[in-house]
Design a protein that fits this description.
The protein has 4 helices and 11 strands. With 202 residues, it is of the alpha+beta class. The protein is globular.
């Protein structure tokens, strides 16, 4: 058969393993846990975990700056722009998360941003806690033909990314996502970001 499969209108998901992550995480973890003691945090999509206020750059020192710069570079490397416009200048909101056993995040999106990003400082031992990316075509797929799927076209309905210390994941901020309950000893620690493009004037 001469038919050719083409992938149009993809949803980009960038998976990156940050270099020298062990050293970076050794610096970040105590800073995050110390801030956890000082700050009652926010309750947004998180259930059972702690989310810092969006003041991460103020207390995370040079380690936080390195993480932010890395995410900005990855976002730039995977973002195109019109040739008559300058490359995007990013504004980044960034916060830390500490989950204990049983914690999870409800499905949500990040309005007003271009990329969403998560970086795992400590994945921890245990089960669950996957980052779930929900198919933006739902529920249309299930309404029309719930027993069928497109062959060799990647996952549909949802896909899961297994957390790993040093792993960074970027995906469109409009993509619905959630975090499965994690069950383990100690803490699962991550840093999340909203990466917004400053609008260039014409």
């Amino acid at each position: 058969m001469s038919a050719k499969l083409l992938h149009f209108f993809p949803t980009p998901v960038i998976v990156d393993e940050v270099g020298d992550a062990e050293a970076l995480n050794r610096e970040l973890e105590p800073l995050i846990l110390e801030q956890h003691k000082r700050d009652s945090g926010l309750k947004l999509s998180n259930r059972g975990g702690w989310q810092s206020k969006r003041d991460f750059p103020r207390w995370s020192g040079t380690a936080g700056r390195r993480l932010l710069d890395h995410a900005s570079a990855v976002a730039s490397a995977h973002t195109g722009h019109r040739p008559d416009r300058p490359p995007p200048q990013w504004t980044i909101d960034i916060w830390a998360n500490v989950n204990t056993s049983g914690a999870f995040n409800m499905p949500h999106v990040h309005g007003g941003s271009y990329w969403s990003c998560v970086y795992y400082v400590r994945a921890g031992e245990g089960e669950g806690g996957q980052l779930v990316l929900h198919d933006p075509r739902m529920p249309a797929l299930r309404m029309h033909a719930p027993g069928l799927r497109f062959r060799d076209s990647g996952p549909d309905v949802r896909t899961e990314i297994e957390p790993k210390s040093g792993l960074m994941v970027l995906f469109p901020a409009w993509l619905l996502h959630s975090v499965e309950p994690w069950f383990g000893e100690g803490n699962r620690i991550s840093v999340a970001m909203n990466i917004r493009a400053a609008l260039a004037r014409r």
